[in-house]
Amino acid sequence: MTVGRMLRPGMYRAAILLLTLLMAAPAMAEPFIIAHRGASGERPEHTLAAYERAIDQGADYIEPDLVLTRDGVLVARHENEIGGTTDVADHPEFATRRTSKTIDGQPVSGWFTEDFTLAELRTLRARERLPQLRPANSRFNDLYLIPTFEEILKLVRAKEAELGRRIGLYPETKHPGYFAGIGLPHQQPLLALLSRYGYQTEADPVFIQSFEVGNLKALRAATRLRLIQLVDGEGGPADEPGTTYADMMTTQGLQQIADYADGVGPATAMVLAPDGSTGLVDRAHQAGLQVHVWTLRMENGFLPAAFQRPDDPQGRGDFAGYVRAVAGTGVDAMFSDFPKQARQALNPAP
């Protein structure tokens, strides 16, 4: 039986795409793995349990999304709206805190971290954000607190001592313009905490990321830590309504980013099209920028058609093939909800 007849059509296309990329690409360093919100494919995201599991699985960096409490404490949540990631709706004492706001031009309803003190948030527990997709993670609902950024730093220090290796930090400032507008800017508490724990220069294993531009430029003036400009396939930065991410990914746009950032963080579809590399990685490298892509997930719904396996009982696709195809474009790093499996894809067992 031939290989072509052994593979289903989608797998065959994926194999051809991967082979093409590997043949065309020069030898390159293996991309490092950023645990997206921790090992969020296996534990509720942005919990100390998710971060520790990712570290134990060999992630090079862990990624906390940072928002602020009413009393100015940095905490880790995917968004400042916490109705979908905590048990806040089950707390009658907070029923009147439910409200509607405009965040980056979009209407959002729910409960918001900036309306709670840290002490109040400590009465809540984390929950799985995607229970229909990841029902196994729901076993851990209501077990974990919302961690502060300082608690994450302490965890990293403890795990470094235990494992004897450096563990990188990759914080994202979530909605920095919005928070600055309500008197809760990220910059001062973020840099103060990082400095207190010894992170001060470009030699330290830290990248600070944002989808906005203004706060990265302000950070560049205040720190030597490395900065990453996040971009998406659509839209543009909330703080520069006349600019699109597509404009920022042109040769000229990348050169402008290089004036204040050390790299770009595009969605994977921006570097890997159905027919191969889009050329973005090469353009960014020519501008002196690293490329850290987001986010590689195992589930079919997050995978390009060529890597999906509709008949898989777990609803998962050819994740290993996808990881290797993305790596074949020459990216410097990749975010993944599944850091262990991403690492195994890059280093398959003999």
Automatic annotation (TrEMBL):
Domain GP-PDE: 31-346
Matching CDD domains: GDPD_ScGlpQ1_like
Lineage top rank: taxon: Bacteria
Class of this enzyme: hydrolase
Signal peptide: 1-29
Record's keyword terms, sorted: Glycerol metabolism, Hydrolase, Signal
Reaction catalysed by this enzyme: a sn-glycero-3-phosphodiester + H2O = an alcohol + sn-glycerol 3-phosphate + H(+)
E.C. designation(s): 3.1.4.46
A Pfam family that the UniProt record links to this protein: GDPD
Annotated family: Belongs to the glycerophosphoryl diester phosphodiesterase family.
Protein name in the entry: glycerophosphodiester phosphodiesterase
Species in which this protein is naturally found: Sphingobium fuliginis (strain ATCC 27551)
